Each structure stands twice: as structure tokens, then as C-alpha cells.
């Protein structure tokens, strides 16, 4: 596994850990909104898995990340710059990816409103939340350094 792949794997694992901690912290004071909170975090888990598959796909097309000039460029490529052609190609190549993409499309309209937003605001003041958030930031730094060296 290349240093770029290793850094991205650590970044994705930190995001998964942050989501788990975030869900736990959010549920602490808002148990009466449990179904909405669980649904919101399920959607976030799906987004991370979608992102992981996109990273794999993009990096497999370019010799493991050699052509990327910056971490920002790579993250944008699997995010905002991701197009319909890539979506179709990856869905055809990876049935699990296609199923997750369909589940995301199905779940997005079900997002819960203000109750989840308020719960997340409260959870973001939890020290455990902030430790997990800092871990994600460190992993982004590791990915950035993988471009440098």
C-alpha cells in the first residue's frame, strides 16, 4: 500500500471514529430524538463509505495518487468535482457502491430538521466530540504530508 493509500485509510478511519463518537455524544442529551439522530448518522456513515470507494476508484486510475498536486485537489475530485460519468462507471464496476449510492439518494430527503441540528450543536461542546474532531484534523494533515513526501 502506498503512503498516499495509507494516509487516506487512516483519514477515513478517523472519520468513522468521529461519527461513532458524534452519535454517542448527540444521543447523550437528546435520547427523545434517537430515531432522527440515528438516521442522520447512518447517512453520514454512508457518505464516508461512498467517499472511500471514490478514493479507491480515483487512485486506481492514476498509479496510486502520483498525479495529485494537493490534498485539496484530491478531496475535491472525490467530492464536488465528482461527475455523473464517474458515478455511473463506479456503480457499474462496484455493485456495493451502487447500492450505497441508491440508499443515500433514498435517505437524503428523510433528513430531520432543527431537532437534530440543535442536538449536534449541543454535542459539539462535549470534550469527547472535540477529541474525535481533532483526530480527523490530524489525519487530514497526514494526507497532506503524504503529498509532500
Task: Describe the overall structure.
- The structure is a single chain.
- With 149 residues, the protein is mainly alpha-helical.
- 79% of the residues lie in helices and 0% in strands.
- It has seven helices and no strands.
- Helix 1 (3-29) packs antiparallel against helix 2, helix 1 (3-29) packs antiparallel against helix 7 (127-148) and helix 2 (34-60) packs across helix 3 (71-78).
- The longest helix has 27 residues, at 3-29.
Defining key terms:
149 residues; mainly alpha; 79% helix; 0% strand
Class derived from helix and strand content: mainly alpha
Low-confidence stretches: none
Residue fraction in strands = under 5%
The main sheet comes to: none
Overall domain count = 1
Helical residues, percent: over 70%
> How many individual helices?
7
Rg: 17 Å
Summarize the structure.
The protein is mainly alpha-helical.
List the helices and strands and how they pair.
Elements (H helix, E strand, L loop, with lengths): L2 H27 L4 H27 L10 H8 L5 H10 L1 H13 L6 H10 L3 H22 L1
